[in-house]
Design a protein that fits this description.
Among the domains are: 3-112, no CATH class; 151-284, 3-Layer(aba) Sandwich (Rossmann fold); 286-400, Tetratricopeptide repeat domain (Serine Threonine Protein Phosphatase 5, Tetratricopeptide repeat, Alpha Horseshoe). The protein contains 29 helices and eight strands. The protein has helices spanning 3-9, 12-36, 43-64, 85-112, 127-130, 136-144, 167-182, 192-196, 205-212, 256-270, 287-300, 305-321, 326-341, 347-364, 369-383, 386-399, 404-416, 420-433, 438-450, 454-467, 472-484, 488-502, 506-515, 522-536, 541-551, 554-566, 580-583, 589-598, 602-606; strands at residues 65-68, 71-74, 151-154, 158-159, 188-189, 216-225, 228-237, 242-252. The strands form two sheets. Strands 3, 4, 5, 6, 7 and 8 form a six-stranded mixed sheet that branches. Strands 1-2 form a two-stranded antiparallel sheet. The radius of gyration is 32 Å and the shape is elongated. Mean pLDDT is 83; it is low at 110-146.
Length: 616
């Protein structure tokens, strides 16, 4: 008898099949139990390894031993004429069929049942209380509430290029894919800042998902060499680490837009999202222009004057290849806005070029929400044309009601118009959507502070400090909150630290001028006030007015506010209706005249019909 015939006679092959089917069923049972019991994440892997290690011993056992009516016996001890291996083989066949039926039933049941297991119902809480309450029970309900099932975070793809020099491309591709998925109203997508906060961090997927409040994570890698690109993606169910889908694309760079479309379709399909419309698609552009755009955007986000000037040059190169590429015009508009705001270039020139770039973006793409939001920001921050700003933001919100940039600018306009509570609602939505974005949290803290809700402001200001201890505007908020809780020493210290970090001594002088008299150091406070008036009168009249307000000198406060008109300091107009101390003196006729000059009197604001609904 040949070796293979002997394997068949001893049922070794049937035992192998039985072992594989039984192992698969055991793994499914282990997966279910791991979701119900407090077992570590690696328990499933341990079960798999034990089953794998047991495979060969099981085959050896079936070769060496035979099941007889008297029990197990070594095969060499049994007379061939008395062997019942054929009968045992039939029993194994029946057992395999039973296990296969159980396996097929498990798969069918998994397909029919909802993807996520039912969760305990969280008791209903009055929304008006839950929105802002710091009650521990409410906070606990928020913390442990399950993430929406149709939610996802797109992590920055790893750069696997030969020279590791394509980070701008891998990051940019991830962000473009995130923006594409964010256009799907039925899908909740974590914002870029929070998703990218985990870049180069050794953090497990379940922890990332918990912190971002998402149920799924999309990660991947990009390898670019010349005109060839390899993109690897995988969609992970965060609670158990199960890979729902993975794919590798080896294409020419020309196909990068089609790849993004394919990934978006796959995500929608895997998450079983029912769409009211079609899956959004990427607008194709010249691959070289696209690559230069990604590079320019990466440079602009570095924040230095030098990097922003370099970004402008690269945007120009991109537009020289494709003059109708609207995102590059938007990028150029933002770069000019930032350079003018930081006074790296002359403000009138910078804002004029910014406006021209955004207007060109609209000419080539009339449905461009980002360009309208950019024009709205410039109209608010520079021109003081709040009627135009409201129009731009209404148009932008009609096109992109969930856009982070659009909503942030709209919230700032609401604050400028004195609609503090409406601004808080939008800022809170943005902070919840982008929970690791220190700017969003800082804006929310500032909005609460403007409303006089200092305890809530302190909560978010402290979160900002945890995420970004060196954030300059964070020091301003912490200082003001210290003032209102009567911790004057902390107020002065915060502004002195801000002066040191920013390299602007005026901040320390402002803190000392207002704070020292409250600490019994009147002469030193007066010296600081005189110094800031001598050195910064042309550019810090609003800050000097603030000092007099803190000193309780209303007349001097209003006098320095009036200098804003002389200095054409329109940037400061945006604070007139939002700052708490300004509202306390707003009934004075001279302040009313200032408000009217700024376009922010009660009548002027009432004529601007601007409201923003919080996205669901």
């Amino acid at each position: 008898m040949s070796f293979f015939e002997e394997l068949k006679r001893r049922n070794v092959a049937k035992v192998a099949v039985l072992y594989v089917v039984a192992s698969w069923l055991l793994l499914q049972i282990a997966d279910v139990l791991s979701s119900l019991l407090p077992v570590p994440d690696w328990a499933g892997a341990l079960v798999f390894m034990l089953l794998l290690l047991g495979f060969v011993p099981a085959l050896l056992f079936s070769w060496v031993y035979e099941l007889t009516p008297e029990g197990l016996k070594r095969e060499k001890e049994i007379d061939r004429d008395q062997s019942i291996t054929s009968r045992t083989g039939r029993k194994i066949n029946v057992l395999i069929i039973v296990l296969l039926i159980a396996a097929i039933s498990t798969v069918a049941l998994d397909r029919l049942l909802p993807e996520s297991a039912p969760v305990a119902e969280v008791p209903a809480v009055d929304e008006s209380v839950a929105a802002d309450s710091q009650d521990p029970a409410v906070l606990a309900a928020e913390k442990f509430a399950p993430a929406p099932d149709r939610s996802i975070a797109v992590l920055p793809f790893a750069d696997m290029s030969p020279d590791n020099d394509q980070e701008y491309f891998s990051d940019g591709l991830s962000e473009e894919l995130l923006n594409l998925l964010a256009k799907i109203p039925e899908l909740q997508v974590a914002a870029r800042t929070s998703s990218f906060a985990f870049k180069d961090q050794n953090v497990e997927i379940p922890e990332i998902a918990e912190r971002l409040k998402v149920a799924h994570v999309l990660e991947g890698s990009v390898r670019k060499a010349g005109n060839q690109v390899r993109i690897t993606t995988q969609l992970i169910k965060a609670d158990d680490g199960y890979h729902l889908w993975s794919e590798t694309y080896d294409r020419d760079l020309d196909d990068v837009f089609a790849i993004q479309d394919e990934i978006a379709v796959a995500v929608v399909d895997q998450l079983k999202v029912t769409l009211l419309g079609a899956v959004p698609t990427v607008k194709e552009v010249d691959p070289e222009a696209y690559t230069l755009f990604l590079q320019a955007r990466q440079l602009g986000r570095q924040g230095s004057a030098d990097s922003m000037m370099k970004a402008l040059s690269v945007y120009e190169q991109s537009l020289a290849i494709d003059p109708d590429y609207a995102p590059a015009w938007n990028g150029m508009g933002s770069a000019f806005t930032n350079l003018a705001s930081f006074e790296v270039i002359e403000q009138d020139e910078g804002y004029a070029k910014s406006k021209a770039a955004f207007e060109q973006a609209l000419r080539v793409d009339p449905d461009n929400a980002r360009a309208r939001a950019g024009l709205g920001w410039n109209a608010t921050d520079y021109a003081g044309d709040y009627v135009a700003a409201a129009r731009y933001y209404r148009e932008a919100l009609d096109l992109d009601p969930q856009g982070v940039g659009v909503l942030n600018g709209a919230a700032v306009l609401l604050q400028t118009l004195g609609k503090i509570d409406e601004g808080i609602a939008i800022h809170r939505y943005l902070a919840e959507r982008d929970p690791l974005n220190e700017t969003a949290l800082n804006n929310l803290a500032s909005a609460y502070m403007d409303a006089g809700r200092f305890e809530e402001a302190q909560v978010y200001a402290d979160r900002v400090r945890e995420l970004s201890p060196d954030m300059l505007t964070g020091h301003i908020i912490q200082a003001v909150l210290a003032w209102y809780r009567d911790d004057i020493e902390a107020y002065v210290a915060e502004l002195e630290e801000l002066a040191e970090k920013s390299g602007v001594p005026a901040w320390a002088l402002l803190g000392q001028a207002a704070g020292y008299p409250r600490l019994g150091r009147q002469e030193e406070g007066d010296t600081a006030l005189n110094e800031i008036k001598d050195q910064y009168a042309a550019t810090w009249s609003y800050g000097i007015a603030y000092v007099y307000a803190m000193r309780g000198d209303k007349e001097q406060c209003i006098e320095w506010l009036q200098k804003l008109i002389e200095n054409d300091d329109r940037d400061s107009y945006t604070n007139f209706r939002s700052d708490l101390w300004m509202r306390e003196i707003s009934d004075d006729p001279r302040v009313q005249a200032l408000l009217e000059h700024a376009g922010l009197s009660d009548a002027q604001v009432a004529a601007i019909d601007f409201h923003v609904d919080v996205p669901e």
